[in-house]
Specification:
It is a multi-pass membrane protein. The protein has 308 residues and is mostly helical. The protein has twelve helices and no strands. Helix 2 crosses helix 3, helix 3 packs across helix 12 and helix 9 packs antiparallel against helix 11. The radius of gyration is 19 Å and the shape is globular.
C-alpha cells in the first residue's frame, strides 16, 4: 500500500464522527424526549458490524483474497463491535432502571427487558472476532460465508426484537431493511479498504453495482412499509420526535440515492473502462460511505426512539 493510498483510506475513520453527527441530529429533532443513551455505542456498533459483513463478501464481488493485515483489521472491528454492543446494553439497562451506569449491578442488568438481545448480538460479534483471528493463521479453515452469516445475525438480533419487530410482519420487514442497508454500506466500505489499482475497481464495481441496485430497492420498499406500520397518521411525521427523525432519515436517503445514481452514471462507466484513477475511485467511495454514516446515525437514533 502506498503512503498516499494509506492516507486516503484513513479518511474512512471520519465515518465515526459522521455517524455521531447523524445521532446528534436525531437528538435535536426528538427534543424534549429523544433516543436512548445506548444509541451512542449502538451507532459505532452498527458501523463496525456493517464493515465486518462487507469484508466477508469482498470475494463474492470479485475482489482479492483478504490479506492478513485486512483480516487483523476485521478482527479489531469485530472486537469494537462486541464491546460497543456490551456498552450499549449496559447504558440501556441504566436508563431503564433509572440508575447511573456505574451503579448498575449484574442483577440489575439481567432483569431489565432488552438486554438479552444485546448480549446475544455481542456474543455473535465475539464469535466473529475469534473466527477472524483463526482466519489469519489458518485461512483454509474459515469460510467467509460463515463470518458473514454470524455478522448478519449479530446485526439483526437487536432490530428484529425492537418495537417494530413486535408488529405483524415487522420482523421480516426490519430484517430485509437492516440487511440491505448493512450490505450496501459495509461492502462499499470494505471495497474502499481492500481494492487496489484501476483493474481492481474495474473488476469489483460493476458486480457491486449490480447487487446494490436490487438491495437499494428492497431497502426503500421495506423502509416505506415499515414507516406506514409505525405511524398512525401523517401528522406524526412532524408532531412526534420519532416522525421528525424518520423524515430526516428519509431526506438523507434521498440525498444518498441521488449520489448513488450519479456514481452509477459517472463512476461506473469510467471505472469499467479504466478511465478513472485508483485515487479518484477511492475518493468517490469514501464520500458515499461518509454520507451513509450520517444516515446510519439517524437510523441508530430512530431505533431507540419511541414511535409516539
Amino acid at each position: 500500500m502506498t503512503t498516499a493510498g494509506a492516507a486516503r483510506r484513513e479518511w474512512l475513520l471520519v465515518a465515526v464522527p459522521a455517524v455521531w453527527l447523524g445521532l446528534l441530529l436525531a437528538w435535536a429533532l426528538a427534543r424534549p424526549a429523544g433516543p436512548e443513551a445506548e444509541s451512542i455505542a449502538g451507532a459505532v456498533a452498527l458501523l463496525a458490524g456493517m464493515t465486518v459483513l462487507g469484508l466477508s463478501t469482498v470475494k463474492l464481488l470479485g475482489g482479492e483474497e483478504l490479506t492478513p493485515p485486512v483480516l487483523r483489521l476485521a478482527s479489531v472491528l469485530a472486537a469494537v463491535w462486541a464491546v460497543s454492543l456490551l456498552v450499549g446494553a449496559w447504558l440501556g439497562a441504566a436508563e431503564r432502571t433509572g440508575l447511573a451506569p456505574r451503579e448498575v449491578g449484574i442483577n440489575d442488568f439481567f432483569r431489565v427487558n432488552g438486554t438479552t438481545a444485546g448480549l446475544i448480538a455481542a456474543m455473535c460479534a465475539l464469535a466473529v472476532t475469534l473466527f477472524c483471528a483463526v482466519w489469519i493463521r489458518y485461512p483454509s479453515l474459515i469460510a467467509p460465508e460463515a463470518v458473514g452469516a454470524l455478522a448478519a445475525l449479530g446485526l439483526l438480533i437487536g432490530p428484529v426484537t425492537g418495537h417494530l419487530g413486535q408488529l405483524t410482519g415487522g420482523a421480516l420487514l426490519i430484517a430485509v431493511h437492516v440487511l440491505a442497508a448493512s450490505w450496501w454500506c459495509g461492502s462499499l466500505a470494505a471495497l474502499a479498504l481492500t481494492v487496489r489499482g484501476r483493474k481492481g475497481w474495474a473488476t469489483v464495481l460493476p458486480v457491486f453495482s449490480r447487487y446494490a441496485q436490487w438491495l437499494v430497492l428492497a431497502l426503500i420498499v421495506s423502509g416505506v412499509v415499515a414507516a406506514l406500520l409505525e405511524l398512525d397518521s401523517i401528522s406524526e411525521v412532524w408532531s412526534t420526535g420519532y416522525g421528525r427523525i424518520l423524515l430526516a432519515k428519509s431526506v438523507g436517503m434521498v440525498a444518498l440515492l441521488a449520489v448513488a445514481a450519479d456514481q452509477r452514471r459517472r463512476w461506473l462507466p469510467s471505472a469499467h473502462t479504466h478511465r478513472i484513477s485508483e485515487q479518484a475511485s477511492l475518493r468517490r467511495a469514501i464520500v458515499e460511505v461518509l454520507l451513509m454514516a450520517v444516515v446510519i446515525g439517524l437510523a441508530a437514533g430512530l431505533g431507540t426512539t419511541a414511535p409516539s
